[in-house]
Design a protein that fits this description.
Layout: E1 3-9, H1 16-26, E2 30-36, H2 42-46, E3 53-57, H3 63-76, E4 81-84, H4 96-100, E5 108-112, H5 126-143, E6 155-158, H6 174-184, E7 189-193, H7 212-230
Parallel strand pairs: 1-2, 1-4, 2-3, 5-7
Antiparallel strand pairs: 4-6, 5-6
Helix pairs in contact: 5-7, 6-7
Organism: Tautonia plasticadhaerens
GO molecular function: undecaprenyl-phosphate mannosyltransferase activity
Pfam families: Glycos_transf_2 (PF00535)
Length: 240
Protein backbone atom coordinates (compact mmCIF):
# COMPACT_ATOMS: atom_id res chain seq x y z
CA UNK A 1 0.00 0.00 0.00
CA UNK A 2 1.47 3.34 -1.07
CA UNK A 3 0.94 5.80 1.80
CA UNK A 4 1.23 9.53 2.26
CA UNK A 5 1.84 10.83 5.78
CA UNK A 6 0.71 14.43 6.27
CA UNK A 7 0.89 16.99 9.05
CA UNK A 8 -0.88 20.36 9.07
CA UNK A 9 1.25 23.05 10.71
CA UNK A 10 0.85 26.66 11.76
CA UNK A 11 3.69 28.51 13.50
CA UNK A 12 5.36 25.32 14.73
CA UNK A 13 8.98 26.50 14.80
CA UNK A 14 9.49 25.05 18.28
CA UNK A 15 8.32 21.53 17.42
CA UNK A 16 8.74 21.15 13.68
CA UNK A 17 12.31 19.84 13.35
CA UNK A 18 12.25 17.07 15.99
CA UNK A 19 8.72 15.96 15.06
CA UNK A 20 9.41 15.92 11.34
CA UNK A 21 12.70 14.07 11.83
CA UNK A 22 10.85 11.36 13.76
CA UNK A 23 8.11 11.15 11.13
CA UNK A 24 10.73 10.61 8.43
CA UNK A 25 12.15 7.73 10.49
CA UNK A 26 8.85 5.92 10.77
CA UNK A 27 6.66 6.90 7.82
CA UNK A 28 6.48 4.01 5.32
CA UNK A 29 5.96 6.35 2.33
CA UNK A 30 6.09 9.98 1.31
CA UNK A 31 5.70 12.86 3.76
CA UNK A 32 3.71 16.06 3.23
CA UNK A 33 3.57 19.19 5.37
CA UNK A 34 0.67 21.58 4.85
CA UNK A 35 1.93 24.96 6.08
CA UNK A 36 -1.23 26.88 6.90
CA UNK A 37 0.16 30.39 6.48
CA UNK A 38 2.86 30.31 9.16
CA UNK A 39 4.39 33.69 10.04
CA UNK A 40 7.27 32.38 12.18
CA UNK A 41 10.36 30.42 11.08
CA UNK A 42 8.37 27.37 9.99
CA UNK A 43 8.89 27.94 6.22
CA UNK A 44 12.64 28.41 6.75
CA UNK A 45 12.89 25.23 8.81
CA UNK A 46 10.92 23.26 6.24
CA UNK A 47 13.56 24.12 3.64
CA UNK A 48 15.97 21.95 5.62
CA UNK A 49 13.93 18.84 4.71
CA UNK A 50 14.35 18.51 0.93
CA UNK A 51 12.57 15.14 0.73
CA UNK A 52 9.40 16.50 2.32
CA UNK A 53 6.72 17.91 0.04
CA UNK A 54 5.25 21.22 1.22
CA UNK A 55 1.92 22.79 0.38
CA UNK A 56 1.68 26.35 1.63
CA UNK A 57 -1.50 28.32 2.27
CA UNK A 58 -0.77 32.01 1.78
CA UNK A 59 -2.93 32.86 4.79
CA UNK A 60 -3.94 30.97 7.89
CA UNK A 61 -7.17 29.17 7.04
CA UNK A 62 -7.50 26.61 9.81
CA UNK A 63 -6.95 23.01 10.84
CA UNK A 64 -9.72 21.66 8.64
CA UNK A 65 -8.35 23.48 5.61
CA UNK A 66 -4.96 21.88 6.19
CA UNK A 67 -6.46 18.39 6.29
CA UNK A 68 -8.58 19.09 3.22
CA UNK A 69 -5.38 19.97 1.32
CA UNK A 70 -3.88 16.67 2.53
CA UNK A 71 -6.96 14.80 1.26
CA UNK A 72 -6.63 16.44 -2.15
CA UNK A 73 -2.89 15.71 -2.35
CA UNK A 74 -3.50 12.05 -1.51
CA UNK A 75 -6.04 11.63 -4.30
CA UNK A 76 -4.15 13.63 -6.93
CA UNK A 77 -0.92 11.82 -6.09
CA UNK A 78 -2.42 8.39 -6.66
CA UNK A 79 -1.73 7.15 -3.13
CA UNK A 80 -3.57 4.20 -1.61
CA UNK A 81 -3.88 5.73 1.84
CA UNK A 82 -3.25 8.75 4.04
CA UNK A 83 -1.96 9.02 7.60
CA UNK A 84 -2.45 12.30 9.46
CA UNK A 85 -0.92 13.44 12.72
CA UNK A 86 -0.25 16.72 14.49
CA UNK A 87 3.04 18.58 14.87
CA UNK A 88 2.69 19.63 18.51
CA UNK A 89 4.45 16.61 20.00
CA UNK A 90 1.23 14.96 21.19
CA UNK A 91 1.44 12.11 18.67
CA UNK A 92 4.26 9.58 18.53
CA UNK A 93 5.49 9.04 14.96
CA UNK A 94 6.66 5.56 15.95
CA UNK A 95 2.95 4.62 16.04
CA UNK A 96 2.42 5.45 12.34
CA UNK A 97 2.66 1.80 11.20
CA UNK A 98 0.19 0.71 13.89
CA UNK A 99 -2.32 3.39 12.92
CA UNK A 100 -1.97 2.60 9.22
CA UNK A 101 -2.04 -1.17 9.70
CA UNK A 102 -5.84 -1.67 9.90
CA UNK A 103 -6.35 -0.02 6.50
CA UNK A 104 -6.34 -3.56 5.10
CA UNK A 105 -9.76 -4.04 6.70
CA UNK A 106 -11.10 -0.55 7.45
CA UNK A 107 -11.87 2.62 5.54
CA UNK A 108 -10.93 4.94 8.40
CA UNK A 109 -8.63 4.24 11.33
CA UNK A 110 -8.78 6.63 14.27
CA UNK A 111 -6.37 6.84 17.15
CA UNK A 112 -7.87 6.78 20.62
CA UNK A 113 -6.12 8.18 23.65
CA UNK A 114 -8.61 6.45 25.96
CA UNK A 115 -8.57 2.82 24.83
CA UNK A 116 -5.38 2.06 26.75
CA UNK A 117 -3.37 3.77 29.47
CA UNK A 118 0.25 4.10 28.32
CA UNK A 119 1.38 6.54 31.02
CA UNK A 120 -0.73 6.91 34.21
CA UNK A 121 0.87 10.29 34.93
CA UNK A 122 -0.66 11.84 31.81
CA UNK A 123 -4.09 13.49 32.02
CA UNK A 124 -5.91 15.78 29.59
CA UNK A 125 -6.99 19.30 30.59
CA UNK A 126 -10.34 18.93 32.36
CA UNK A 127 -12.41 21.08 29.99
CA UNK A 128 -10.99 19.42 26.89
CA UNK A 129 -11.77 15.99 28.28
CA UNK A 130 -15.35 16.99 29.17
CA UNK A 131 -15.95 18.30 25.65
CA UNK A 132 -14.42 15.20 24.10
CA UNK A 133 -16.67 12.95 26.21
CA UNK A 134 -19.76 14.94 25.25
CA UNK A 135 -18.99 15.01 21.53
CA UNK A 136 -18.06 11.32 21.54
CA UNK A 137 -21.47 10.63 23.07
CA UNK A 138 -23.14 12.46 20.15
CA UNK A 139 -21.25 10.37 17.63
CA UNK A 140 -22.19 7.12 19.33
CA UNK A 141 -25.83 7.92 20.05
CA UNK A 142 -26.61 9.68 16.77
CA UNK A 143 -24.47 7.76 14.31
CA UNK A 144 -24.31 4.32 15.87
CA UNK A 145 -20.56 4.33 16.37
CA UNK A 146 -18.78 2.85 19.39
CA UNK A 147 -16.00 5.41 19.65
CA UNK A 148 -13.98 6.48 22.67
CA UNK A 149 -12.20 9.56 21.28
CA UNK A 150 -13.91 12.08 18.98
CA UNK A 151 -10.99 14.41 18.36
CA UNK A 152 -7.75 12.49 17.96
CA UNK A 153 -5.93 13.86 14.91
CA UNK A 154 -3.85 10.69 14.50
CA UNK A 155 -5.80 8.93 11.75
CA UNK A 156 -5.47 6.84 8.59
CA UNK A 157 -7.78 6.87 5.58
CA UNK A 158 -8.11 4.72 2.51
CA UNK A 159 -7.60 7.04 -0.44
CA UNK A 160 -10.75 5.79 -2.18
CA UNK A 161 -13.00 7.30 0.49
CA UNK A 162 -11.46 10.78 0.48
CA UNK A 163 -13.38 12.17 -2.54
CA UNK A 164 -16.62 11.33 -0.71
CA UNK A 165 -15.95 13.90 2.00
CA UNK A 166 -17.38 17.37 1.48
CA UNK A 167 -15.50 19.45 4.02
CA UNK A 168 -16.72 23.01 4.45
CA UNK A 169 -15.56 23.68 8.02
CA UNK A 170 -11.95 24.87 7.86
CA UNK A 171 -11.43 24.93 11.61
CA UNK A 172 -11.29 22.50 14.52
CA UNK A 173 -14.88 21.31 14.04
CA UNK A 174 -13.94 19.66 10.75
CA UNK A 175 -13.70 16.15 12.32
CA UNK A 176 -17.42 16.29 13.09
CA UNK A 177 -18.18 16.59 9.38
CA UNK A 178 -15.85 13.65 8.74
CA UNK A 179 -17.63 11.47 11.29
CA UNK A 180 -21.13 12.28 10.02
CA UNK A 181 -20.16 11.74 6.40
CA UNK A 182 -18.33 8.51 7.26
CA UNK A 183 -21.56 7.24 8.79
CA UNK A 184 -23.71 8.41 5.90
CA UNK A 185 -21.48 6.55 3.41
CA UNK A 186 -21.35 3.40 5.53
CA UNK A 187 -17.60 3.54 5.99
CA UNK A 188 -15.95 0.98 8.24
CA UNK A 189 -14.18 2.56 11.23
CA UNK A 190 -11.58 1.06 13.55
CA UNK A 191 -10.05 2.67 16.63
CA UNK A 192 -6.51 1.87 17.73
CA UNK A 193 -4.93 2.90 21.05
CA UNK A 194 -2.35 5.69 20.96
CA UNK A 195 -0.59 7.35 23.90
CA UNK A 196 -2.19 10.30 25.65
CA UNK A 197 0.42 13.08 25.65
CA UNK A 198 -0.20 16.65 26.78
CA UNK A 199 2.97 18.72 26.70
CA UNK A 200 1.48 22.21 26.85
CA UNK A 201 -1.99 22.77 28.28
CA UNK A 202 -1.83 26.45 27.33
CA UNK A 203 -2.05 25.87 23.58
CA UNK A 204 -5.02 27.82 22.29
CA UNK A 205 -7.77 27.19 19.75
CA UNK A 206 -7.90 30.88 18.90
CA UNK A 207 -10.45 33.64 19.44
CA UNK A 208 -13.83 32.77 20.93
CA UNK A 209 -13.07 29.03 20.67
CA UNK A 210 -10.77 29.37 23.69
CA UNK A 211 -13.95 29.59 25.77
CA UNK A 212 -15.03 26.00 26.49
CA UNK A 213 -18.78 26.71 26.47
CA UNK A 214 -18.58 28.62 23.20
CA UNK A 215 -16.46 25.85 21.69
CA UNK A 216 -18.94 23.13 22.66
CA UNK A 217 -21.86 25.14 21.26
CA UNK A 218 -19.93 25.67 18.03
CA UNK A 219 -19.25 21.95 17.74
CA UNK A 220 -22.94 21.23 18.35
CA UNK A 221 -23.95 23.65 15.60
CA UNK A 222 -21.53 22.12 13.09
CA UNK A 223 -22.61 18.60 14.04
CA UNK A 224 -26.31 19.33 13.72
CA UNK A 225 -25.75 21.04 10.37
CA UNK A 226 -23.77 18.03 9.15
CA UNK A 227 -26.60 15.73 10.22
CA UNK A 228 -29.14 17.80 8.29
CA UNK A 229 -26.98 17.84 5.17
CA UNK A 230 -26.30 14.11 5.32
CA UNK A 231 -30.00 13.26 5.51
CA UNK A 232 -29.14 10.04 7.29
CA UNK A 233 -31.58 8.47 9.71
CA UNK A 234 -29.93 8.95 13.08
CA UNK A 235 -29.83 6.22 15.66
CA UNK A 236 -32.42 6.23 18.41
CA UNK A 237 -31.62 8.23 21.53
CA UNK A 238 -29.72 10.89 19.59
CA UNK A 239 -29.35 13.99 21.78
CA UNK A 240 -26.61 15.80 19.90
Amino acid sequence: MRLLTAIPVYNEEENLEPVLAEILRHAPGDVLVVDDGSTDRTPELLSRFPTVRVIRHERNRGYGAGLRSAFEATVSGGYDGLVTLDCDGQHEPAMIPEVAGPLDRADLVSGSRYLKVFDPSQAPPEQRRKINVEVTRWLNECLGFGLTDAFCGFKAYRAEILPKFEISDEGYAMPLQVWVQAASHGMTVVEVPVPLIYLDEKRAFGGALDDAEYRLNHYRSVFQDALRRSRIEVAGGCRG
